[in-house]
Amino acid sequence: MLQSYEAIIENGQIKWLTDAPKVSKARVIVTILPDAVSQSSLRESARSESTRRVPASSIVGKGRTLGDLVSSIVEEQDWECLK
Questions:
Q1: Phi/psi zone of residue 24: left (φ > 0), alpha (ψ -120 to 50 degrees), beta?
Q2: Mean pLDDT, the chain, as a whole number?
Q3: Which of 38, 67, 79, 82 is the residue whose CA sits 20 to 30 A from 22?
């Protein structure tokens, strides 16, 4: 499986922005990003992609609505006990 690692090349040296890969020798493909792309926006996009939640396929179609979507499923006289 392919792995991606974020790094900066500065004066011919690689500075890892994430944990460095644990390999002694590897074939790599380097993509040079334009300077206009800020490092903070790269980190934000990586963070939002990695935290996106996807439900398991085993729960598809098993959800139920227990009450009206507009009114409460708890009776109004029971509201006091919920405080």
A1: alpha
A2: 76
A3: 38
